[in-house]
Amino acid sequence: MTSRKDRLFTGCGPKTCCEQRIVEVTTADVERIATALQIPETSVCSHDPDTPGRRVLARSPDGCSFLLALVDGSRRCGLGDLRPMACRTFPCSLEQGLVQVRDDARHCECRAWSLADVDLAEERAVLEAAVAETHAQLAR
Amino acid sequence: MIAPGCHDCNGACCRRYLVPVHGFDLHRLTRSQQLPVEAFARFSPTDPGSRGAFRLSRDDRSFRITLAHRDGGSTCTFLLELPGGAGRCGVYPHRPDVCAVFPMEMSAGVPVVRDDVACPPGRWEPLDSAVWAPALDRAELEWRIYETALERWDGWVRRRAAGDPADPAMLLAWLADLYTRLDPIRAELGEAGLAAAAADVGNFACGELDGPAADLIARCVWAATGLPGEDLRVPN
Q: Nearest CB to B40: which of A42, A66, A70?
């Protein structure tokens, strides 16, 4: 059974966040995507020229490279369940250990997200997994 | 996981073919992507009697449903074109059956390599057709369910007045309703039951009408809701 958040995300046609935001990826994200799709890491992400060591999801002039633009003008994520942790945790973050809606997601162009859109236990699990991936990366 | 012959491919097949889809392909894509059929598929003219062909009016013009191409070209609407030239399917876990069994197809009940493969020569050799048979049988079963449903649709269209063509949106709505009604039938049969029907589909194709494939296809087609004014007497 898909969660309410997943249904809202999948069904969002404008996908403004995928068009406008720069998505930071973890080493685990890149390895997961490159392995599953059998593509080189250079097709998945690029180095952020402003911040050494930071990698961001590949982009085209139209936004995220993995964004599908369909014939009726709507958009969909071409990565589905493979999408990076930063995308999977959106619109939430952990603040002082609490699951919160990110400030920049309260004013999303497509939707004003609130905690009513997410399953708190599920969200916490994804957020903690994302933190673990970041820690693992720092420890390397 | 990407098929072994496709790991270093940039999607030649996704840039060249017009991809025909059956009703269950549409059902999977509309559900998984939360998209209306119109967002990703088209009605394309085709030969009467060809795979997935149906009519919208009493004349002989036939259509089939295919995946839409991007910007009037021949690139599939679901192809991701990535930096470095890599091409990958953006709906891979939900892709249509003809894509999932590519480069194979069923010809007179036998798995064969298509004669129009876009791949480099030798890419699929040696090819063990036994490995592909279960997926090809499942695809064939879905095509037969779809085509049998379309026979019912065509019969209804033929009985309409000459100047009163059917609305394409009505066909899509009827198919969406039908495939939603098939979900519980699929759940009841389970993987084993569906595999048994698929393994029997060659017999159905040869006119065997009391095997598991024929039973399932009949159940599926008559699960559909009646079309306006349709004669709903079930055969037998």
A: A70
Q: Would you say the ipTM is above 0.85? A: yes
pTM of the model: 0.93
Residue B14: C-alpha distances to residues B153, B156, B222 (Å): 30, 35, 35
Q: Could you state, in order of their start, the residue ranges of all structural domains in chain A?
A: 4-139
- In chain B, DSSP finds a helix count (H) and a strand count (E) of 6, 7
Instruction: Look at residue A1 in the predicted model and tell me its pLDDT.
Output: 59
Q: Cα–Cα distance between A3 and B128 in angstroms, integer?
A: 40
CA distance B225 to chain A (A): 27
Does B3 reach chain A within 8 Å, measured CB to CB? Answer: no
Determine the Cα–Cα distance for residues A70 and B40; give it in Å rounded to an integer.
6
Taking the C-alpha atoms of residue B236 and residue B53, their distance in angstroms, rounded to an integer, is 26
Q: Is the CB of residue A20 less than 8 Å away from at least one CB of chain B?
A: no
**Residue of A10, A36, A65 with shortest CB distance to B83:** A65
